[in-house]
Design the sequence.
């Protein structure tokens, strides 16, 4: 269905829009695809046929009320058309064809009139909505019946006006409209719905009704505003031209006391003029009246204190001359005809409006005498091209406009400045808040730290291990350093002890290692087997060692020895060089997995020759960063090759199932490098140099493995 | 007369007269009853709505000041259209202004018939010693045209209140007459009423004028 109905609309052809009869006018679905003319003929034919044969033909699908109105408009159509034609004829004679609106409406009327109808009967629904909304806001204490009455009235009012607008002359229509107002007022007086309403409220109500009805009607072309059949538009044009011609008329001619040099004066004039210009924009008569009222108040202010009508009128004339409001006559006529007459006669707005009418009338009939000037002079002025006259005031006003704009912008700028100030204050406040917040947080953190200082306690586990182990192996005095919470000190201690011990052992091994598996290993980073093979030749004792790749989870596995399981953290902490140094040989540590890249070790050795490679190492960056923290190892890390090696450690896990001694094999490799490199670097400030010597003594203790193994796992800890 | 609880009478009154005879002053003086003397100078009295209560009837007076300069004389009809009452002001020290009043009376009679209530006010009686318009002449003329005559002094606040009161009373009376004799009714009656179909015609007058 959807497709079927939508598809054709996508490629609508102009011929599809035309009347079905094939005449040049466009058809309308409401007219069964005919143009209005053909449809009317069709209807008439149908009606005739009905009458003749009394056989009911299938009726067009229109609704009844719509139809009734259409028929009414048909009956009036010819008359209406005739009137229009007459109108356009007179226009042509008057050579006033510039009135594009008129021309258009007379030439296009054939299409326009019928097409305009359907929307006219839908829109009142919108008005209903608008009225409902406004009613709720403005007349809160009136019963809902009043709302309904008002809406019913507006609806019937609009319908009636539209219906009559084609049949009646403007004067008749105006009379009818006024009678509608009267009816509504009378209704308000008699109906019980309005029993409680004050007379002021009733006046507001009639204004309310008028506003909504007229606002809608105002926008319909040629119905109430410069209606067809009147000369309003021509008069508008004539008036506009006349005012242009009179632009030379100044305040002196009109004997009004204006001071054109006074800026306040020109400001007021400017305001009055802008209000007058806005009259055309207001839709309802009430709106127009209030604009006029405001304009006249400005004009009164312009005249100065204790201004009387004697002052007001000349000043108003002057203002109108300078403003040259668009469609002035049409607007005036619209208000006079269709504004509620009572208000026009009694209200303040009515008074000012009357003054405006006077001003316009005066301008229309302005002669040399009315300006107290010589006839010849007047004629000269009138003959002068409009562009010349009144330039001073025009200039003053344009300046005024500019000044006003400037003032507005200045005001805007001032407002912005004020905003900036507040913003800055708020920013400061925010900064202060942030500051205090930071302090508070810091304070709290310190507080918490003070209250719970011993997160590090788990470290003691390794102590137990180490103590256990110590019993078997008289290792180092590392127990004490382990106890201390600060990792740094022990770390220094340990290397001091160990480094030297490794030294002697290493050297021979490194050589062998290099030769055997140098190349292989360097290429395969993670080849454990390749590592194992070389290892046996170095030291047969290596067998108990098992190297395997491990995930970190292995660290979590409880030690087979039945010691309390290491949680990852405790292990990590243990891995600080000191800890490790003390513990690495302990049986309890059998489960600790160190990732050791043996290949790198070999690489290390070879690296002396080879420039650092394997940038691929995922851990290398970390390792590098961490190294500096470690004072003792720094020299080593300075050698990029060594860094790589250290990082490689992570990739392999070293499990020593048995004794520590076996591990020596690894250490040896490492040590050689360690010891050598610093020496080679010949860094005098190196903290190791003294250490090494001492370490050499300790070397025998059998802890050396730790020295080489330490760096990689330790790094994360130390940082 | 339909005096619905909410039905107030709206009357429109115009002040006519030559320039500088004191129309505005009279209006200002009348307003002064409501406002402080100090405000007098700052008031812009061109239009005044005044609510009165006469014999229990609520009356709303709209008093319109008009421009009195000679060159605006032609605009008079626009001003006094639909008026219920007119106050014709002259300066007792200025004969010409009285002549102008006569003109106005003629014009009003011609345009509005007898439906408009006319009040002739000789202003500036505080300048009695400079009087040029004889008292008898003015009063006899007023009688002749069926108008009330008052002597006022806006400066001394003499007769102003009485003038407006009398005018209002007259207008109410005239209104009631008109409602009684429907034939006399004209569009000038502005009171909300069911039978004022002719009222709207007056609104079309602008162009015709």
Sequence:
């Amino acid at each position: 269905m959807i497709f079927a109905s939508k598809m054709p609309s996508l490629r609508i052809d102009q011929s599809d829009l035309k009347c079905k009869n094939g005449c040049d006018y466009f058809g309308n679905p409401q007219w069964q695809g005919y143009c209005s003319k053909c449809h009317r003929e069709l209807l008439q034919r149908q009606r005739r046929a009905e009458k003749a044969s009394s056989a009911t033909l299938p009726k067009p699908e229109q609704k009844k009320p719509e139809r009734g109105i259409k028929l009414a408009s048909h009956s009036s159509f010819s008359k209406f058309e005739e009137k229009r034609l007459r109108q356009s004829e007179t226009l042509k004679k008057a050579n006033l064809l510039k009135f594009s609106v008129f021309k258009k409406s007379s030439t296009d009327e054939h299409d326009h009139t019928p097409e305009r109808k359907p929307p006219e009967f839908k829109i009142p629904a919108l008005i209903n909505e608008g009225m409902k909304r406004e009613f709720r806001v403005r007349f809160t204490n009136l019963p809902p019946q009043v709302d309904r009455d008002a809406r019913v009235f507006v609806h019937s009012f609009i319908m009636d006006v539209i219906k009559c607008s084609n049949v009646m002359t403007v004067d008749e229509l105006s009379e009818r409209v006024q009678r509608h107002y009267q009816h509504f007022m009378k209704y308000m007086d008699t109906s019980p719905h309005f029993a409680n309403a004050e007379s002021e409220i009733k006046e507001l109500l009639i204004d309310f009704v008028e506003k909504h009805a007229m606002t809608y009607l105002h926008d319909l072309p040629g119905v109430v505003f410069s209606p067809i059949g009147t000369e309003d538009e021509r008069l508008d044009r004539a008036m506009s031209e006349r005012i242009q011609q009179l632009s030379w008329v100044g305040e002196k001619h009109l004997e009004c006391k204006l001071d054109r040099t006074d800026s306040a004066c020109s400001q007021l004039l400017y305001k009055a003029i802008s209000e007058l210009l806005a009259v055309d924009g207001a839709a309802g008569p009430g709106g127009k009246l209030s604009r006029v009222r405001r304009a006249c108040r400005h004009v009164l202010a312009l005249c100065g204190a204790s201004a009387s009508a004697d002052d007001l009128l000349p000043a108003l004339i002057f203002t109108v001359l300078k403003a040259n409001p668009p469609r002035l006559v049409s607007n005036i006529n619209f208000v006079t005809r269709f504004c509620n007459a009572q208000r026009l006669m009694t209200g303040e707005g009515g008074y000012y409006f009357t003054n405006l009418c006077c001003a316009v009338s005066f301008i229309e009939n302005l002669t040399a005498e009315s300006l107290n000037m010589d006839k010849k002079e007047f004629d000269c002025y009138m003959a002068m091209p409009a562009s010349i006259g009144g330039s001073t005031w025009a200039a003053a006003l344009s300046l005024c406009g500019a000044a006003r704009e400037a003032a507005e912008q200045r005001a805007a700028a001032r407002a912005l400045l004020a905003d900036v100030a507040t913003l800055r204050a708020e920013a400061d406040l925010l900064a202060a808040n942030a500051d205090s917040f930071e302090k508070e947080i810091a304070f709290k953190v310190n507080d918490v730290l003070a209250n719970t200082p011993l997160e590090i306690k788990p470290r003691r586990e390794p102590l137990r291990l180490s103590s256990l182990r110590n019993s078997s192996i008289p290792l180092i005095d590392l127990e004490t350093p382990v106890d201390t919470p600060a990792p740094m000190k022990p770390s220094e201690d340990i290397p001091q002890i160990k480094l030297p011990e490794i030294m002697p052992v290493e050297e021979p091994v490194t050589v062998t290692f290099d030769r055997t598996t140098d190349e292989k290993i360097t290429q395969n980073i993670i080849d454990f087997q390749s590592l194992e093979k070389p290892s046996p030749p170095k030291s047969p004792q290596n067998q108990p060692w098992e190297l395997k790749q491990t995930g970190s989870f292995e660290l979590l596995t409880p030690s087979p020895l039945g010691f309390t399981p290491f949680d990852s953290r405790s292990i990590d902490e243990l891995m600080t060089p000191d800890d490790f140094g003390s513990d690495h040989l302990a049986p309890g540590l059998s489960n600790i997995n160190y990732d050791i890249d043996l290949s790198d070790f070999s690489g290390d050795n070879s690296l002396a020759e080879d420039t650092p490679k394997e940038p691929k190492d995922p851990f290398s960056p970390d390792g590098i960063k961490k190294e500096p923290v470690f004072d003792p190892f720094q020299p080593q890390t300075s050698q990029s090759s060594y860094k790589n090696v250290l990082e490689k450690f992570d990739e392999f896990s070293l499990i020593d199932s048995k004794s520590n001694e076996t591990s020596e094999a690894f250490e040896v490799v490492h040590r050689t490098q360690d010891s050598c490199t610093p020496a080679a670097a010949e860094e005098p400030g190196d903290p190791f140099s003294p250490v090494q010597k001492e370490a050499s003594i300790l070397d025998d203790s059998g802890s050396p493995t730790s020295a080489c193994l330490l760096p990689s796992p330790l790094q994360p800890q130390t940082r | 007369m339909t005096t619905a609880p909410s039905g107030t009478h709206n009357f429109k009154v115009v002040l006519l007269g030559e320039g500088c005879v004191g129309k505005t002053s009279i209006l200002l003086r009348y307003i002064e009853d409501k406002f402080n003397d100090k405000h007098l100078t700052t008031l812009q009295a061109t239009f005044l709505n005044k609510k009165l209560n006469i014999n229990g009837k609520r009356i709303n007076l709209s008093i319109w000041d008009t421009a009195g300069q000679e060159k605006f004389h032609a605009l008079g009809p626009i001003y006094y259209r639909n008026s219920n009452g007119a106050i014709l002001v002259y300066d007792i020290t200025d004969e010409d202004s009285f002549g102008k009043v006569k003109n106005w009376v003629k014009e009003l009679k011609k345009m509005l018939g007898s439906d408009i209530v006319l009040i002739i006010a000789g202003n500036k009686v505080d300048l009695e010693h400079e009087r040029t318009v004889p008292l008898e002449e003015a009063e006899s003329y007023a009688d002749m045209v069926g108008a009330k005559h008052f002597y006022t002094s806006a400066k001394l606040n003499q007769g102003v209140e009485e003038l407006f009161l009398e005018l209002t009373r007259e207008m109410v009376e005239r209104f009631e007459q008109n409602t009684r004799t429907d034939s006399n009714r004209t569009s000038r009656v502005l009171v909300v009423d069911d039978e004022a179909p002719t009222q709207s015609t007056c609104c079309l007058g602008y162009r015709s004028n």
About this structure: The two ends of chain B are 31 Å apart (CA to CA). Confidence is low (pLDDT under 50) at residues 1-6, 34-42, 183-209 of chain B. Strands of chain B lie at 9-17, 47-54, 57-65, 85-91, 117-123, 148-151. Chain B touches chain A through 53 residues (CB under 8 Å).
